[in-house]
Amino acid sequence: MVSQLGTTHSPIKPILIIGAPGSGTTLLYQSLCCHRDLAYITHNMLRAGIRKQGRLVGDRRKALFILQNLIHRDPASILPHEADAFWMTYFGYYDYRTENDYTEEMAAYFRKKVLQVQNLWGRSRFVNKNLQNSFRVRLLNSIFPDAKFIHIIRDGRAVAFSLLNKKELGATSPILLVGFKDILGDKYQSERSELYNHGLAWAEYVTKAREASAFAQSRYYEVRYENLVREPHNELRKIVDFCELDWSSEFMEKIPLTQNMNEKWKQKASKEQRTDLEESTFDLRRTLGMAE
Fold first, then answer.
1. CA-CA distance, 88 to 109, in Å (whole number)?
2. Are 33 and 80 in contact (CB under 8 A)?
3. How many structural domains comprise the chain?
4. What pLDDT, on a 0 to 100 scale, did the predictor assign at position 146?
């Protein structure tokens, strides 16, 4: 299969993981990247210039990738990367993008670069997790017409409370850096608490990402975080089948241990915080069957 990668102009069925911050996207991404057929972007690959245009291709780029792996061996350099800079080449930060923003130039760029990632790994398929892509599913579908969208959803109350705690601990998640107004627009509630707006932001992520269910249909898969951490083997088996990948004992042995972190908000949130969490997420949770 590897020898065919350089002869096609578009990657076959790239897998795009989407979802709100703190929803288990990293857990799912790192789990899928253990599959022997899946290529993914790393920080070292970005250092090797994978996102750059130009003539530095083939063996020279692979040599740079190998060199970076020799120099930078820390986990942050070799683990699967969201590759924000890669996608932002054409997409911007948290801008909402649709098929109306499509250009042949951007499509050719992303198709070519994904194929280069596959060639560097010598693997036949590509997977990436990027939170910002939740706002770009319509455009991504135009670029990759056979893409597989995997949307992981977690209880919005747990997500919002987790984000607030992360900020207090000094975390620099993109949602904390970009600001709610850029994500929520006129839905931002300046008279309500930051936690309340975290809940609204969760709903915006999920709503935008679910647009993929309308046009992708059989190429869209929705998984609940709660199910993934409770029964990781069963859920990942379903996801692997959806992705049209082989299930192997080798992959199964690499599935990490999981823990449900959804109880923290129930244990630690104040009465006022619980009210904000319940109210800001209720409508969408009811739609999703998560209103309890």
1. 12
2. yes
3. 1
4. 97
Q: What span, in angstroms and rounded, lies between the C-alpha atoms of 56 and 53?
A: 8
Contact at 8 Å (CB) between 121 and 256?
A: no
Q: How far is it, in rounded angstroms, from Cα 195 to Cα 67?
A: 44
CA distance 149 to 112: 20
Buried b (16+ CB within 10 A) or exposed e, 22-36: bbbbbbbbebbbbbe
- 9 inside domain: yes
Of 14-18, 50-54, 120-124, 196-200, where does mean pLDDT reach its minimum? 50-54
CB 27 within 8 A of CB 18: no
CA distances from 271 to 245, 265, 266 (A): 46, 11, 10
Q: Residue 96 sits in a domain of what CATH number?
A: 3.40.50.300
Q: Apex CA 200: angle with CA 208 and CA 190, to 5°?
A: 130
Residue 272 within any structural domain of the chain: no
If one compares 93 and 273, the residue with the highest pLDDT of the two is 273
